[in-house]
Amino acid sequence: MAEERNARSEAHEVAQWLRRHPRFLEQFPDLAVTLVVPKDGGASASLAGYQLEVLRDKNRELTRRLHELSGNAQDNERLAVRTHQLTLALMRAGSAADTLRAMVACLSEDFAGDAVRVTLLAPIAGLDDAAWCQVVPVDDARMEAFREALASGEPICGRLAPERHALLFGDAAARVASCAVLPVSAVGLIAVGSVDANRFFPGMGTLFLRMMAEALSTAMARAG
Question: Which terminus of the chain has fewer Cβ atoms in its 10 Å neighbourhood, N or C?
Answer without folding.
Answer: N
